[in-house]
Amino acid sequence: MENLTINTPVGRASYPHITNPDSYMGKEQYKLKLILDPQKPEVQTFIDKVNGFVTAAKAEASAGLKEELAGLDPASKNPKTQKQVKTITGQLEDIDTDYRSPLTEEFDRDTDEPTGNVIFDMKSNASFVNKKTKEVVKLVPKLWDADGVPIRGERPDIKGGSMLAAKTTLYAYAAGFGCGTSARLADIQVVKLAQGGGSGSDAGFGKVAGGFVQEAPAFDSVSDDSSMDY
After folding, report:
1. Taking a C-beta distance cutoff of 8 angstroms, is the pair 217, 192 a contact?
2. d(CA 95, CA 151)
């Protein structure tokens, strides 16, 4: 199935690994989960597009696997054929019962009840090996500010709670470990940076006249409800 590249609406970042990639089991990836509110029209439109891709991908994968299975003899004594039949049968069951989607429902940590929001999960590899030169090529998501201008120089520290939008590519996969649709992370628009760390009053500090006051980041001038394409 042909991949689909789309822009997400602005959402709240959850456990982002954008400034630096996440390292897990020897694999480095940039990761971003956006929490989105379906009550916003632009979010519901985005959800419909993703779900439409997932539905089409499921149907295409199922039809392809059934056609492949029809060309095999389930009564064959050949171990290779038996393995193929078992793998394809398992994939077909997985499509029906456990097809993976980058969209999942958000649940409240304390009550374990649905919040009404959805989570859109994206990731991309931090590098790849050039097959011709054997060189390691780094892949770093490009950042844009709220005005749609590329962020150059030092990358901002993007924390959870930051308001972001992203360009993502949906692609379908079918493998022995399962079938599904994933979202590859590309460019990211920084709409509002979360400061993190709580407020000074939480630590017992009050205001001191004439003291140091942190300047707001350039991309902190857009409200949480903004929805800007880039």
Report:
1. no
2. 41
